Amino acid sequence: MALSYRAATASSAEVTEEASVRAYIDNTLCALFHELSLPPAVGRPSVTLRRRTNATSYRINSVTGALEAVGPEAPYRTYSWPGSSASEAWRFTVIIRILAVIDEAMRTGQMISKRDIYYIDPACFRSQSVVDGVVDDLAYTIGVERAAFNVEAAGKGLITGSFILRQESQVVLDARSSSQDNLIPRLQDEDEIDIFGTRWILVVEKEAVFHRLVRNNYHTTALAGKGIIVTVSLIVINHLENVVNKNQGKGYPDLNTRALVHRLVIISSAENPRRPLPIYALVDGDPDGIAIMSTYKYGSVAHFHENARFVVPGLQYLGLRISDAAMNPHMLTNANLLTLTARDRRKVASMLHNSPILGVDGPELEWRVELQRMLMLNMKAEIEILYEQDGGLEGWIDRKMFRQV
Amino acid sequence: MSRQYLAWGSADNAHTVDIFSLAVTDKQILSASGAPSLKVHSTTETDFPLVQSIDGAHTLGCHHVVTDFKGARAVTAGFAGELKVWSCEDGYWAADQIATANLANVKVWAIALSGDGQYLAGVSQDGRVGVWDLSADGTQIRDHETKGSFGTCIDLSPDGRFIASGHENGAVYIFNTETGRMPFSLSGIVKPVRAVAFSPGSKILAVAGDSKVIVLYDTSSGEQIANLSGHSAWVLSLSWSSTGEYLLSSSFDGKVKVWSIDSKSCVATHSETEKAVWSVKWLPKNAKSEAFATAGANRSVAFYREATGG
């Protein structure tokens, strides 16, 4: 995968990418305000996009190694408001709304998916493909990758453990079978869920870690008893998106996954109000890890109006903290700590600056401090670091869960 | 031979989050943390009362605070990348807006202040070492490029002749402040350096970090004088006693150690916490005995004094 290549060259390229996206948004909005301030007869608010060509052939760019389209120069298209038709006015509205979402995502440092954007206002956007098209056209117009404005391909949730989902009395998902990937579907209110005395839920950032735990049957062999493990798989569905994506492998949850985790908590607290099911997050000890945990627990900027329906207030921070990696007596080596990239440091600053969750008066002081410790040490740690230690990842989770109960 | 330092009191929960840095004057101790406010505690009374809380100093938190010898000026560095200058009159600290504005474009991570408070030295995330003259509108008077490794720590020698910077790749550079030349680049360490500290006589530079060993260098020759081994986790902070007889160190596992420079050995170990001790500082010597302060992830400032035997 080209992922490592991208990471290695990220710092300087990202600065310019971020700057060009910012400049585009600022210029577009400034021009808009200027036009709006003119008398209605004169002012002509508009936005110009470069449409992607319907190229039929592709080549590998010899410099970047990226797949790119071969074809004539793309045409520019200007949409103005109110425009010459209702369709043009609608297009204009869609573009401006998406720009506003991207602006917000960039300022708060959160990742959003195209799917998230669509669900902000399905009535306005009409279909997912409209959103996809505009996001890609915007990236193309500015000359950056889509990831530069924090929009990523939608992920898909996976679940394994003591969990059965019935729709109209038919079993549609039995997650006790670990021989295959159990994709998390879109839940309906009338769906029946059975969790068979599950003792814990573990939300894992990384798909690879999820597969390891499932392969080792951790959901049935954990010291804490039977459990449910959830993760997000980032399979890029559209082959046209086969460009280098710096956020591939990051497990920001989609709405279906968040809805399911939320529902599991509701079910368990209905069954046993005195002793609600403990639910843990196992994320990388880096800014994305904290942001992913924050998305599960509090929701995302893309869904302000829906977050209340999906929050998981009881979510506990199992790890990974830098101190887990550096101080663990069971750790055989701590050589696997990584240096923060320039993007990581900017992301931490942006999260501390923008997220009310991380404020000094906010609910997650420990997250705030963990981010600051990363900055102090200029280090981050990946979950895989725990594979090497005495008792493996599974032994570490056993010990951590007991300490947190 | 071991020495005893007794718990002398503490400012409990001085901050709501980790304390990252301490600075001392003759009567006060300043602490900076991941919370926006700086705290000032008196060290003249043994209950160490809070005498001032500088609220809203750094919204995202503060990672470095340094003071001059007289306790007239302090400089702080915040997590948003900003520097602030403070001045003290009659024990009360106030923002020095003009000096702060003069440093608005200075982007450094670790900082050090000269004894007279005139010069600020800093090292940046890309390893550049600079010196700014605070009495000349913050003009930059030195700019040294190094190999680009993150500058984690910096110190100015008390005699004003040297600057030392420590870097993530293990490099330590010593610059001559008069000539601007770099007489030494100290090698031998490959892991991140987290603390550099000149002895009071400016003759020895102590260096420590993730290698867990404290290395003493002769500043006139660049030769290694000694390796002080004993910490079993990353060393985060170093401080020399006023006479230069003792060196204080702290580590990520909560241990605080006092080392005798004469015998090159550890003479006291404190392990009151298992959490990282980010900063240690000797207090200026008073008539009775030597004392020091420690602070870190347990969010309190703890004080210890030498057992004098009566």
From TrEMBL, chain A:
Record domain Topoisomerase 6 subunit A/Spo11 TOPRIM: where: 249-388
Cellular component GO terms held in the UniProt record: nuclear chromosome
One Gene Ontology term of the molecular function aspect: DNA topoisomerase type II (double strand cut, ATP-hydrolyzing) activity
A GO biological process held by the record: reciprocal meiotic recombination
Cofactor requirements of the protein: Mg(2+)
Residues of the Spo11/DNA topoisomerase VI subunit A N-terminal domain: 90-151
Leading EC class: isomerase
EC number of the protein: 5.6.2.2
Catalyzed chemical reaction(s): ATP-dependent breakage, passage and rejoining of double-stranded DNA
InterPro entries: Spo11/TopoVI_A, Spo11/TopoVI_A_N, Spo11/TopoVI_A_sf, TOPRIM_Topo6A/Spo11, WH-like_DNA-bd_sf
Keyword hit for Ligase: no
Assigned keywords, A-Z: DNA-binding, Isomerase, Magnesium, Metal-binding, Topoisomerase
Catalytic residue list: 119
Endoplasmic reticulum is among the record's keywords: no
Family, as annotated: Belongs to the TOP6A family.
PANTHER family: MEIOTIC RECOMBINATION PROTEIN SPO11
Protein name, per record: DNA topoisomerase (ATP-hydrolyzing)
Species for this entry: Penicillium angulare
Taxonomic lineage from the root: Eukaryota, Fungi, Dikarya, Ascomycota, Pezizomycotina
UniProtKB/TrEMBL annotation, chain B:
Highest rank taxon of the organism: Eukaryota
Organism of origin: Penicillium angulare
Domain EML-like second beta-propeller: 108-280
UniProt cross-references to Pfam families, sorted A to Z: Beta-prop_EML_2
GO cellular component terms, A-Z: nucleus; protein-containing complex
Keyword Repeat among UniProt keywords: yes
Name of this chain's protein: EML-like second beta-propeller domain-containing protein
CDD domains in the record: WD40
UniProt keywords, alphabetically: Repeat, WD repeat
Record InterPro entries: Beta-prop_EML-like_2nd (IPR055442), SKI8 (IPR051510), WD40/YVTN_repeat-like_dom_sf (IPR015943), WD40_repeat_CS (IPR019775), WD40_repeat_dom_sf (IPR036322), WD40_rpt (IPR001680)
Per-repeat ranges for WD: 108-135, 186-227, 228-269
PANTHER family in the record: SUPERKILLER COMPLEX PROTEIN 8, WD REPEAT-CONTAINING PROTEIN 61
